Amino acid sequence: xxxxxxxxxxxxxxxxxxxxxxxxxxxxxxxxxxxxxxxxxxxxxxxxxxxxxxxxxxxxxxxxxxxxxxxxxxxxxxxxxxxxxxxxxxxxxxxxxxxxxxxxxxxxxxxxxxxxxxxxxxxxxxxxxxxxxxxxxxxxxxxx
Length: 144
Description:
Blueprint: E1 4-8, H1 13-29, E2 32-39, H2 49-78, E3 85-91, H3 94-105, E4 109-113, H4 120-125, H5 128-135, E5 140-143
Parallel strand pairs: 1-2, 1-4, 2-3, 4-5
Helix pairs in contact: 3-5
């Protein structure tokens, strides 16, 4: 079985720290890293067919923009790091989608950054890192 790590990346400094830590751990474990970028998407059942079509078009544009603006620069930085790195960009609930990616890839560990700043909403409903730590199918490392 291949040793695969999933590193959640949202373009933030804490996300980059999580990716960098995953890379360091992957070197030691001779593992590969999948960088997972998830765009939050909330489908609405009350949209008209025309609105759904327009939304689908925007969704494709957003995925393309995320690839170009967020993932491509990171992948370029990581290209010479000595670790096999690939990426996944998906829509969905962030924590659940990262878990799905980890399961699909057969990952043995997930890495995610912690911002260190809690909003009122996060205190009431939980952060992505907190949710991921609770539902992850494999060990989850929260990187400060």
